[in-house]
Structure formats: structure tokens, C-alpha cells
Amino acid sequence: MENVQAIKQRFGIIGNDPKLNRALEKAIQVAPTDISVLVTGESGVGKEAVPKIIHSLSHRKHAKYIAVNCGAIPEGTIDSELFGHEKGAFTGATQTRSGYFEVADGGTIFLDEVGELPLTTQVRLLRILENGEFLKVGSSQVQKTNVRIVAATNLNMIEAIKKGKFREDLYYRLSTVEINIPPLRDRKDDIHLLFRKFASDFSQKYKMPTIRLEDNAVQMLEKYRWPGNIRQLRNVAEQISVLEESRSVSPMTLNSYLPNAGDSNLPAVVEQNTRKSDFSNEREILYKVLFDMKADLNDLKKLTLELLHSDDSEKVQEENESLIRKIYGNEGSSRKEENDTAVELLPPHDSRVEKTVEPPQEDKYHFAEEIEEEETLSLQEKEIELIKKSLERNRGKRKAAASELGISERTLYRKIKQYDL
Ligand SMILES: Nc1ncnc2c1ncn2[C@@H]1O[C@H](COP(=O)(O)OP(=O)(O)OP(=O)(O)O)[C@@H](O)[C@H]1O
Ligand SMILES: [Mg+2]
Fold it and tell me: Which residues form a coiled coil (predicted)?
């Protein structure tokens, strides 16, 4: 059996915390069996490595490994994605399609964000877990598959069950073995280690000398709560590496990269920090304005096209007026779902399914918006920054961040994955 240290090296996992080691040990022990595993832990703790470890140490390692992000697939199509569909099962089903459970026969499926599965899909999944049987959407012919399921969630599943959002029987089936990855704040000794690793990675990436924390800054780093866990720590290391001229990082500098660290140990620092955060607020507002302008520009483009193509000038006039009301009226900052495509700055590559299979059928998720490239690139950077800030401000709570940004949770989710935030 491979030992924990070897696995860490192979999968680039940093840290020596006993709770982390125990979690990895569990993954190694359970890998050769077909037992279902539920990986739990806060956002950004490193859950995604576990199913990969399990698959690669199992007898299924030469078969397919498919990672499906359940939270990012629209409810209306998730059954068809997972279980496939028959030709004619619904409008647009022009041919029979195999789902991931069929394609991954003999292999492993990682159901990430499993707590987001709709209840109807949960019923189908339960059946697969019980006897390997499933039906394609629109078919009455029972099919069989042999798939090992590893799931992950950062939700409190007991709460979800209480609220009727998740089936209790499915929860017990999925979590035959539960592997919990501890939050960063409970792995204090790993924090500086991880920071140094990321600092060294980014110094290579950006071809700059490595940043180094002053002693007091190390203490601050270890005292901070890290609501976004390792993902947040990595972002902080990257931001400081790129933005700070001095390679020696003082507590004051570090503090300005840690949202809500104000109540930490250094009063003088807090005062200093106010100025900087005022400045960054201003910048955020500017970005927000830029986004709204972008959306408005899209509206205008659309309208111009319509003007060019329409001879019904009265109708256009009306639309024009309503658009102007919309732009200058009072709904500026609360753009909702309907405008989501307008802030979709890049034609999304499908980031929901990680690898190994080409989803066999037609490209269903083609978002029409096409925007010139340079424009897209600079705005994309701003978008990433805006999203990061909003997530930080809302302590990683996507719902709150999405509503602050005026986009749907799903869109935000897609963007987090797309930009690997
Ligand atoms: N121990 C570790 N050593 C090095 N990098 C790590 C470690 N744990 C996590 N990371 C990195 O931190 C980032 C976040 O990890 P991951 O994507 O697995 O989070 P998660 O637990 O799936 O979070 P979420 O619930 O938000 O999806 C990844 O880039 C991952 O490579
Ligand atoms: Mg994840």
C-alpha cells in the first residue's frame, strides 16, 4: 500500500497536519474497495484531490474517471447528462445520447457539489447505488452500469436533509465512508508551509524574487481565520507576489490582503489599513460601473442591430426609450438573471466536466454572445478581480456574492470554476 507521504508528493499536497494525514490515510485504505465515499469540508480545503487519489489507487485506475460538477449543470438537463436520453425524449433530443454513468462503466464518477442535485435526480442516483440500474431519460429499458461513486460537498448535509433538500437514504448510501478535510484554521502548522510553497511557485511563474513574510506577519497569517481556506491563501500569496514591490512582507501589508482581519492583533495596522481599503473600495465601484457599462453597451449593440434590420420604426422607438430608461433609470446595479448573458464575457468552455470523455452529443450550452477579444481580455481581468473581492467580502458565501454582483448563483459558480478562483 502506498504511504501518505508518497501520495502527497504524487498529488502535490502540502501539509503535515495529523487530521489531514488521517484523511489521506482513509482515502488510501478505502481505494481498493468499491465503497462509496463522501468527501466533506469547507470550500477551498482541497477536497478535489481525494477522488483522484481513490481512483488512481483502485483496480479501476485504467478505466474512466469522470468528474461532474452537479452544481453547475442546469436542472433541466442534469438527468440527461448523467443517465443519457433517448432520441425524441424532449425537444432538441435529435439523437440517442449516452450519459456519464454509461460512459464511465468500469470506472469512477466524482460527483462534486453533490448537495446541489435536484431531488428527482437523487432518486435515480439512489437506484444506481443500490443495484447499478438506471434508465435513460425517455426510455423504459433498464440498463446496468458498474461505477464507483465518490461525492463531495461543502454543505452541511444534515441541515440539507432537515430542510428536505437531500434524501436521507441517499446520504447514507453515499457516505458509507466519510472523509473530512479539516479547515485551514485548524491546521495552523501548515499555513506558513503552504504560503512559502505558493510564494515560491508564483515567484517562478512571474519571474520575480520570492516574497518572504516578516516574523510578525507569520503570526498574523497563522491567526487569521481563512474562510476561503487554501484557495484563499493561494490567492493572497499570488496577489502579494504580483502587486507588492518589496519582497519582504510586513504585517501591515499582509493585513491589507486579509478581509475582516481588522480585529486581529495589531491596532496600529488597522488604522493604516483603512486608507488602503478605501482606495480598493473605490476601485471596486469603478469596476462595477465598468461592468454595468459593458452590459449597457451590449444592449445598445443589440438595439443598433435591430434598428438596422427593422422597418417598424415606432416599435424600435418604444424599445429605445425603454432601454434608455433602463440605463439611466434606477435599476442600474440590480441586474438579475435576464442580463446574465450580457455579463458573460467569454464564450464558456464547458468547465463542468473535468476530463476523459467527450460528452457525445450536440453542443447544448452554446452561449450566443460574441465579443471582440481584446475587449474581453481586459474586462475579464476586472471581472475576476470583482468576483474575488466580492467573495472575500462575503467570506466565500457564493449566494451573497452573487446577489451583490447582480448575477445568478449558477453564473457565479461557473465563473469561479472557469477562472479557477
Ligand atoms: N494540501 C494542499 N496543498 C497544496 N494545494 C492545495 C492543498 N489543498 C488544496 N490545495 C489547492 O487549493 C485549491 C482549492 O482546493 P479544491 O479545489 O480541492 O477545494 P474544494 O475543497 O474542492 O473547495 P470547494 O468546496 O469550494 O469546491 C486548489 O487549487 C488546490 O490545488
Ligand atoms: Mg471543489
Answer: none
What pLDDT, in 10s, does the model give residues 34-78? 999 999 999 999 999 999 999 999 999 999 999 999 999 999 999
Q: What pLDDT score was predicted for residue 318?
A: 65
Residue with more model confidence, 139 or 274: 139
Q: Residue 105 in contact with residue 60, Cβ under 8 Å?
A: no
Ligand 1 probe mutation, 21, 47, 185, 202, most atoms within 8 A of CB: 47
Q: Sign (positive/negative) of CA torsion 213, 214, 219, 225?
A: negative
- With a Cβ cut-off of 6 Å, ligand 1 is lined by 12-15, 41, 43-49, 154, 230-231, 234
110, three cell numbers: 466524482
pLDDT at 262: 61
Q: Look at residue 204 and give its three-state secondary structure.
A: helix
Closest CA to 57 of 112, 2, 13: 2
Buried b (16+ CB within 10 A) or exposed e, 57-72: bbebeebbbbbbbbbb
> Could you tell me the distance, in angstroms and rounded to a whole number, from the CA of residue 143 to the centre of ligand 2?
30
